[in-house]
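FAQ

Q: What does a record look like?
A: Structure on top, sequence underneath. For example:
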């Protein structure tokens, strides 16, 4: 494609996918269905809808903070690695960051597939020791007075960060608000209304 840039890893994935399909090891339609499931039905869009609902519905927000598993399930999201959820809300005084120091426990039902950096040893180690430095590497520089709370996901409990609602969004509907919520903002490495880091 002229004028477009495709990352080397994307090219390798496409080449591998083509070979596997050509040799009959995978079915292209089944692969497309699986990818569509993780991108639209089990993915960050689900979490974004949870956050947007909390932004517009104070009763739902209260429920989410009390019993995230049940509140999230009420919207139809749950299942493997989506059980035992805890929601933590960012405020002007507190910023939350999620990590899994032992492995890569991650709430697939609301965030989709984990990004490669989330599973990396450097992120898992440094997020606890130097969260402010890690956030700066993601381009997120917080006020020095802002407290950073690091939440360690485990097989027993997984966390969803509810980012602060961006200023100037009072007139937006729930679906438009969901468009502002990124995967990174629900992990704590970004803010709502700001593009994800990849």
């Amino acid at each position: 494609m002229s004028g477009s840039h495709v990352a080397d890893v994307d090219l390798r994935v496409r080449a591998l996918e083509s070979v596997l399909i050509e040799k009959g090891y995978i079915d292209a339609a089944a692969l497309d269905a699986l990818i569509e499931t993780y991108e639209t039905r089990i993915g960050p869009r689900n979490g974004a809808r949870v956050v947007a609902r909390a932004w517009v519905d104070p009763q739902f927000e209260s429920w989410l903070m009390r019993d995230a598993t049940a509140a999230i399930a009420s919207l139809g999201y749950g299942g493997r690695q989506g059980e035992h959820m805890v929601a933590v809300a960012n405020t002007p005084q507190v910023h939350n960051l999620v990590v899994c120091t032992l492995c890569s426990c991650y709430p697939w039902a609301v965030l989709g597939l984990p990004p490669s950096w989330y599973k990396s040893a450097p992120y898992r180690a440094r997020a606890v020791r130097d969260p402010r430095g890690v956030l700066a590497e993601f381009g997120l520089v917080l006020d020095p007075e802002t407290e950073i709370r690091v939440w360690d996901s485990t097989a027993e409990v997984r966390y969803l960060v509810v980012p602060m609602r961006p200023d100037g969004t009072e007139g937006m509907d729930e679906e438009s608000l969901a468009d502002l919520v990124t995967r990174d903002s629900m992990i704590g490495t970004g803010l709502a209304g700001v593009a994800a880091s990849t």
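Q: Is there anything notable about this one?
A: Residues 43 and 101 are 22 Å apart (CA to CA).
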